[in-house]
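Much of the work behind modern protein science is quiet bookkeeping, done one molecule at a time. The protein below has been through that process, and both of its lines are reproduced in full.


***
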Amino acid sequence: MLKTLQPSSSSLAEPAVFPLGQTATAEPLVPVVGEESNEASTDSLFEQFAWLYIFCREKLFRDDTARIIRALWPTGRPAPGEKIIELGCGPGFYSCKLAERFRGISVIGIDRSPSQLKWAREKRNDRGLKNCRFQSDNVLELSHPDDSFDVLLASRLFTVLPNRRRAVAEMYRVLRPGGRCFIAEPRYAFWASLPLFTMWVLAGLTSFKNGYCEPSRAKVLSRREMDRLFASQPWRKLETWTDGRYQYALCEKG
């Protein structure tokens, strides 16, 4: 089911289907360099039980790679030099896949768990990816300047995020004019909560019992909440739709 929304700002264009074949001006590929920070995040279940989430992401969660490519690049390929950021990248599932498939782009994955980032970097190194790096950062206060990226990705980000509107505002801020974001979120709390529930059970069976920042149950967005959340920013074009257990948003910055 597909729904095209008119964002809440009165200055926006009329609702329309995205002409997403247009891309930002191509830039020569520059290998991704720079320091990869790795701040501690020991108060997180995703850190203490990183192996469990990594297993879920690699083996159990839906793989939206083909859907991402179709939505963002109808021609099947990004323009050379496009810069992509993935928020809540975890073990680098999508960052590495896209960097490996399209060697002419640069990709950065953002997460707060050192163990998740370590796994992502090992995967990147094993695949010999020079156009991909991973960094510890806060999605509610990204360290990147305004208008930095052509494409932003986030999957299953909002289930444990305390301030969703702030995160969407940061997404809008770091995208360049004409930049696009692709968001994938689970629709049902039961299925979305299984990894969290399992991690909390493991925490109760070990010495790691207290002080974790995650809730015991995932908080999923209703269809209306999803629409309102992304309409909180003045996107030029915005679409939301559902497909089975997941819902999606596709946004373009004016």
